[in-house]
């Protein structure tokens, strides 16, 4: 039975992924922030707690999860301020999105590498907006979000350079109908949560343990860095 630790699994894509993988026979451990509603998560996973922005919560997480995993998937992330503009952002807004989407998850990932099995897989929830090559849409105000995902991709790939025995997957989940994906109902998403997580489960099944560093979408299509 393959095992996975999903960081940020109390709702949205993390919860959907936990539910889908459990139905496919995986052993699932999922994390939430302290105080979040974990009723649905507890039905399909062992529940642990961590806020990726809080360094003092890393060691308690390590103690609570105990075992090793075939896959660790860092899902937690935010869209950032609605304006998402580098010219409008405050220092605090920029620091918050970079800490939440990049530095916090990668810092945690480094502290969890010893909890991966031999030739294990580390996956991060990226975005096609993290592709420098694909950044050709004029006037699209996604400066902060893009920057955070570019940095996430870079630091995830650096882990592979240092640990080539591991598989590192940066996965774009598609524009899914989550609270973040729809900006709390303000915009229409392109795919359902179910479609997104089924696709990501397929990507994990195909590429986990490959020993490669890959940037893929939820359908398994390669994305240009």
Notes on the structure:
- This protein has 225 residues and is of the alpha/beta class.
- It has a single domain (3-217), classed as 3-Layer(aba) Sandwich (Rossmann fold), CATH 3.40.50.
- Helix content is 36%, strand content 19%.
- It contains 6 helices and 7 strands.
- It has helices at residues 12-23, 39-42, 58-65, 91-112, 143-162, 193-207, and strands at 3-7, 27-32, 46-49, 69-74, 116-125, 167-172, 213-217.
- The chain has a 7-stranded parallel β-sheet, sandwiched between helices.
- The longest helix has 22 residues, at 91-112.
- The model has no long low-confidence stretch (mean pLDDT 94).
**In percent, how helical is the residue content?**
25-40%
Order of helices and strands: EHEHEHEHEHEHE
Largest sheet: 7 strands, parallel
Computed structural class: alpha/beta
The CATH homologous superfamily is called: NAD(P)-binding Rossmann-like Domain
Our estimate of the beta-strand percent is 15-25%
Average pLDDT reading: 94
In the CATH hierarchy, the third-tier topology is known as Rossmann fold
The CATH class is Alpha Beta
How many DSSP-defined strands? Answer: 7
Outline of the structure:
With 225 residues, the chain is of the alpha/beta class. The chain has one domain: NAD(P)-binding Rossmann-like Domain (Rossmann fold, 3-Layer(aba) Sandwich).
Q: In terms of topology, how is this protein built?
A:
Elements lengths: L2 E5 L4 H12 L3 E6 L6 H4 L3 E4 L8 H8 L3 E6 L16 H22 L3 E10 L17 H20 L4 E6 L20 H15 L5 E5 L8
Parallel strand pairs: 1-2, 1-4, 2-3, 4-5, 5-6, 6-7
Helix pairs in contact: 1-6, 4-5
């Amino acid at each position: 039975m393959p095992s996975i630790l999903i960081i940020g699994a109390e709702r949205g894509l993390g919860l959907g992924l936990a539910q889908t993988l459990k139905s496919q026979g995986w052993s699932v451990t999922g994390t939430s922030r302290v105080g979040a509603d974990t009723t649905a998560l507890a039905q399909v996973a062992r529940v642990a707690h961590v806020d990726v922005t809080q360094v003092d919560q890393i060691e308690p997480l390590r103690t609570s999860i105990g075992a090793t995993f075939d896959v660790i998937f860092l899902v937690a992330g935010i869209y950032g301020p609605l304006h998402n503009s580098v010219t409008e952002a405050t220092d605090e807004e920029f620091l918050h999105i970079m800490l939440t989407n990049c530095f916090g998850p990668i810092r945690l990932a480094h502290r969890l590498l010893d909890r991966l099995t031999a030739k294990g897989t580390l996956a991060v929830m990226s975005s096609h907006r993290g592709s420098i090559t694909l950044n050709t849409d004029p006037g699209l105000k996604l400066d902060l979000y893009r920057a955070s995902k570019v940095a996430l991709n870079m630091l995830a790939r650096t882990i592979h350079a240092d640990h080539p025995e591991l598989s590192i997957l940066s996965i774009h989940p598609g524009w899914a109908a989550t609270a973040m994906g729809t900006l709390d109902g303000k915009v229409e998403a392109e795919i359902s949560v179910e479609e997104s997580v089924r696709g990501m489960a397929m990507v994990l099944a195909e590429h986990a343990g490959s020993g490669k560093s890959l940037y893929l979408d939820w359908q398994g299509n390669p994305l240009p860095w």
